[in-house]
Amino acid sequence: MTTAQKERTTDELKELAEQAGRDLEDATPLEILKWAADTFGPRFCVTSSMEDAVVAHLASRAMPGVDVVFLNTGYHFPETLGTADAVGAVMDVSLITLTPVQTVAEQDAEYGPKLHDRDPDKCCALRKVKPLEQGLTSYQAWATGLRRDESPTRANTPVVGWDAKRQKVKISPIARWTQDDVEAYIAEHGVLTNPLLMDGYPSIGCAPCTFRVAEGEDARSGRWAGRNKTECGLHG
């Protein structure tokens, strides 16, 4: 068994995460992802909402063939599904698509139609949080595209931290980047992006709960607009 594949206790993983968060605070995203690849090997994956493929692209440079996990909630825009298909087809990654236990029709039959309008937290739990928890079972560490400048709730995101809910190492390699940094990377490397980003949607989630944002407004203000909700539950 290689070092990258070794089993670690929960305490060892937590200590590893906290130490790496300190050591890698000033590292580049690629350096952080190379550390993840060397440390966890196939027990490491990237999650992507398919808003863009920046982190997936970075991870593919650090670990060719890396698992990229995509949650197909059943409510995505066609453009989002098309972006996921393109990422799987043209990038050096292994695209893994997770789906909820119930189809939308089955969920409607049990809870009533448009649960997302009546109880968005419940809908997110069923169609995002639970499938991700199940899908991450075989991994010790997962990477996200969280950035500190996205919202106040993400301002303290560590580049490497401990995901207490899932008992895993959580890596946010572009946490210190700004939107300008993201756009510069996309331009330099020709990274795939969701077409909706050019159509007034700076933050893209499920179609029923995602709206266009006026110029100058907070990027995430179009998510669950009019509700006291800013996160789907995957990150807090």
What does the model show?
This protein is an alpha/beta fold and 236 residues long. Helix content is 37%, strand content 11%. The chain has helices at 10-23, 29-40, 54-62, 78-90, 104-111, 115-118, 120-135, 179-189; strands at 44-47, 66-71, 93-98, 141-143, 160-163, 168-171. A 6-stranded mixed sheet has the order 3-2-1-4-6-5, with helices on both faces. Helix 4 (78-90) links the parallel strand 2 (66-71) and strand 3 (93-98). The two termini are 34 Å apart.
Order of helices and strands: HHEHEHEHHHEEEH
Assembly category: single chain
Number of helices: 8
Distance between the termini: 34 Å
Topology of this protein?
Layout: H1 10-23, H2 29-40, E1 44-47, H3 54-62, E2 66-71, H4 78-90, E3 93-98, H5 104-111, H6 115-118, H7 120-135, E4 141-143, E5 160-163, E6 168-171, H8 179-189
Parallel strand pairs: 1-2, 1-4, 2-3, 4-6
Antiparallel strand pairs: 5-6
Helix pairs in contact: 2-3
Summarize the structure.
This protein is of the alpha/beta class.
List keywords for this structure.
236 residues, alpha/beta
